[in-house]
Amino acid sequence: MARMIFEAARTIEATPAIAWDILADYRDGHPRILPPEFRDYAVERGGTGAGTIITFVVRAAGVTRRFRPEVTAPEPGRVLLETDTITGDTTTFTITPVDGGRRAAVRFTTEMAVRDGPLGAVERAATRMVLAPIYRRELANLDTLARTWTLSGSVEHASAG
Asked: Which residues contact 139 (CB under 8 A, 6 or more apart)?
């Protein structure tokens, strides 16, 4: 089996600490940024950062896949890693300060097994076509949520005035 890497990135209008708080919060923050292709999301163990195990199903392009990643934090506050206990596929969330820490560049990197040869080339192309819009929506959702998120782990509601 060959490996493929798919990446998507966006600079969000919030601090790196807020981006981390949302991504590492598997009970409230992270599930709120997931696009509709993610279904049956549940926290099996933990809920915040390293040691968390989640389960979910992704249904896209007529294909349904079940995932059960375990979360580690190789660089707390900067790098969060989900390793699927079923397939061994990984998704890394990397946060880099921008503009002196006023904003955050967030990169999602997924590494997964694909077939070798011509079938693998088709599989890689199809996977990229499916993942690109999903990751764009997830990053956009992160940006939207981060604009109202406080470090206490909740959404700040502006009062009408």
From this structure: 8, 9, 10, 12, 106, 108
Q: What does the pLDDT profile of the chain (161 residues) look like in tens digits?
A: 788 899 999 999 999 999 999 999 999 999 999 999 999 999 999 999 999 999 999 998 888 999 999 999 999 999 999 999 999 999 999 999 999 999 999 999 999 888 888 877 887 778 788 889 999 999 999 999 999 998 765 554 333 33
Question: What tokens does 54 get?
Answer: 């989640």
Cα–Cα distances (Å) from 129 to 30, 59, 62, 90, 115, in that order, read: 23, 14, 13, 18, 17
Domains of the chain: 2-153 (3.30.530.20)
d(CA 108, CA 2): 20
Q: What is the pTM of this model?
A: 0.89
